[in-house]
Automatic annotation (TrEMBL):
Native source species: mine drainage metagenome
Annotated family: Belongs to the bacterial reverse transcriptase family.
SUPFAM superfamilies: DNA/RNA polymerases
Molecular-function GO term, any one: metal ion binding
Protein name: Reverse transcriptase
Length: 292
């Protein structure tokens, strides 16, 4: 197994205090004059997924540049409450809230589209202390048509967190004041502990609004200590981690379809079943879910 790259504070990043066209080209690997063409709509694939969401995915040279910037951002230290980072998973996020106590959760509506070019520019200008023209170029590269973070880029999660870091840090301070465990997985916000009340959930949602973002009312929920709790796609029951019924149903449906499938369809279903079973094993192998 290869050694994980060492992480460092933001002021040790090659992006920090970046100024000058020459240094920009050395760090980003793109010529200054090529940026406008690189960011054109022809370097994005755009489609609507099965949930009706528009996906904007960079390709060609823009995808490579996103990967380059993403690599640099991934080496920056982030707080322990962040579970959408390399080496952690949505299951690890849910496990932090095991126990016989209340849980509250919410998420940010349209997280990536809510991170505008102005917010990304502010991130590089204020937090990274880049020169104004460099911050502008970086914001253009990171954003879809100079509007907002693209919904289909691996870079978007890193930039979105850093751009909204002040919000998440405010929630972390609020959680500590109420002696609650707080985690974030992309845009999913979860708090647990004896004081994780509906009133605290309302305060969290107020903070989100204060920072210019919106939370989803339908996904803002509170769970009593004794009830099953749905957290980032898994079910918590006391000290146990369980699969949602919908995941069991999908595995069963795939198994049934395989009984009559042939040729390429059978091959596709076998791969699908393997992936779903591996995902189920990841959930059910929780160390705190194994009986003595």
């Amino acid at each position: 197994m290869s050694e994980q790259p060492k992480r460092y504070p933001i002021d040790q990043s090659p992006l920090y205090s970046l100024c000058g066209k020459g240094k920009f080209e050395t760090v980003i690997g793109v010529s200054w004059e090529a940026v406008p063409e690189l960011c054109s709509s022809s370097n994005y694939r755009v489609w609507t997924n099965e949930k009706g969401r528009e996906i904007q995915a960079p390709f060609k040279g823009l995808a490579a540049t996103h990967r380059r910037i993403g690599l640099l951002l991934s080496r920056i230290d982030v707080p322990g409450y962040v579970y959408s980072q390399k080496g952690r998973s949505y299951v690890d996020n849910a496990r932090q809230h095991l126990g016989h106590h209340p849980v509250i959760k919410t998420d940010i509506q349209g997280f990536y589209p809510s991170i505008s070019r102005a917010k990304v520019y502010g991130l590089f200008r204020r937090d990274f202390r880049c020169a104004a023209d460099v911050a502008g170029r970086l914001a253009d590269i990171c954003c879809y048509q100079r509007l907002h973070l693209p919904t289909g880029s691996s870079l978007s999660g890193l930039v979105a967190f850093l751009a909204a870091r002040h919000l998440f840090d405010d929630i972390a301070r609020l959680a500590r004041g109420f002696d609650c465990t707080f985690t974030v997985y992309v845009d999913d916000i979860t708090l647990s502990g004896p004081n994780a009340t509906k009133q605290l959930l309302a305060e969290v949602r107020t903070l989100i609004k204060k920072h210019g973002l919106r939370s989803k009312r339908g996904k803002s929920k509170s769970f009593s200590p004794s009830s099953p709790k749905s957290v980032t796609g898994v079910i918590l029951v006391g000290e146990d981690v369980r699969l949602p019924n919908s995941r069991h149903q999908k595995i069963w449906e795939t198994q049934q379809a395989l009984l009559t499938a042939t040729g390429e369809e059978r091959f596709r279903l076998e791969r699908q079943l393997k992936g779903r079973e591996q995902e189920a094993n990841q959930v059910l192998r929780s160390p705190r879910n194994i009986s003595d």
